[in-house]
Amino acid sequence: MRGLGDHLSIGERIAFHRKRRGYTQQVLAGLVGRSTDWLAKAEAGRRKPPRIDMLAELARVLRVPLGELVGQPVLMEDDRQQDDVPAVRDALMSPRRLSRLLFGPEAEAQLPSPGPTRELVEQRWDDYQAGRLGNVIAGLPGLLQTAQELEDRAARSAGERRDCWAVSARVHHLAATTLAKIGESDISWLAAERAMRAADESGDPLVLASAARAGTHALLANGRYDDAMELGHTAAVWLSARVDQNDPAALSLLGMVHLRAAIAAARRQDRSTATSLLNQAEALADQLGSDENYWQTSFGPTNVVLHRLSAELDLDNISYVVEHGQIEVDHMPPERGVSHRIDYARALALAGQGDRALAELRAAEDTSAQLVRNNPRVRDTLRDLIKQSPITGSARSSELFMMAQRCRAVQ
């Protein structure tokens, strides 16, 4: 288990770290530009949790990772406990990664070729999009080791150099995105940095654009919204000048860069920039013409709508999300559909529509239990629904409490 207990609310986490720093409520409230009454109600759960931008500011002042306030998930399979994240961390932080001169392979060592590894990493990408996070985490240590060996092979074989680095970038991108999804923000950034370095070495603009998505995921997970916006803007400008604007893969990658930057802007409470980026992505989706999945982007008109709803949720426009959030997502990869249902359920809960919120969470859980049960936003939503539930012992209360137990929202 990582971080504080999963049963703690966001307010309780803020209070824990405030006391740990020796701050009174008055002092911490002043440091983040809020009233003592605001902080007291936030810690006690008598108001809705602070927006993500305020949580990022609280995390900065309290000197803790953002994930410590929103709640770190613990990966668990449906039928058995399984947590291979330490093995992923070991693979990323092996001393052999520090120097090829010191730790390079023996001259006669047999090194893997890029083809079979490319097939394997694409299979794990399919697992990620299907919500089978346990499979991805279990496979990452071996893939990361193989990626390092491919980089060694690139130094030996000029003819395979680009392919070796491109596959390494895909492996590290998968690691960064998956680790950000399960709350491992620190090593997510390490994997993203290696993805972009490998993409640089590959010389392929599409590989670099894809790796830039990993960078934005990691920066968002760490609450670094300005940096995510800067990376998105720089990547979009660079890619636009180097690819065929009629290439559907390039359109998809460029569109996703805009969408991730738009979410960063929304979490930064910069509505005008978020809207502009969403509109640019929408134009690219219209040019693409349909929902596609080039480079595992799930990009197209539907994904733009889903990101627009997610941005409005971050911008605290709850009524808009409730009114427009009933989107057909069954044709989308499960990871995208589940992420939307979680956002929509959050908005419904904040609007006091508990029955509909619980139904969305149950539908999401039926699609991918792993994605739901390891999501801190789900736990916060379930705690809010328990507070709203007027009748203990009713069928709804029983169903709600059982789901809260499955998701570790309650002890």
TrEMBL record:
| Organism name | Streptantibioticus silvisoli
Q: Which InterPro entries match?
A: Cro/C1-type_HTH, Lambda_DNA-bd_dom_sf
Gene3D superfamilies found in the cross-reference section: lambda repressor-like DNA-binding domains
Q: Which residues form the HTH cro/C1-type domain?
A: 14-69
Question: What is the name of this protein?
Answer: Helix-turn-helix domain-containing protein
Alphabetized PROSITE patterns for the sequence: HTH_CROC1 (PS50943)
Q: Could you list the residue ranges that cross the membrane?
A: none
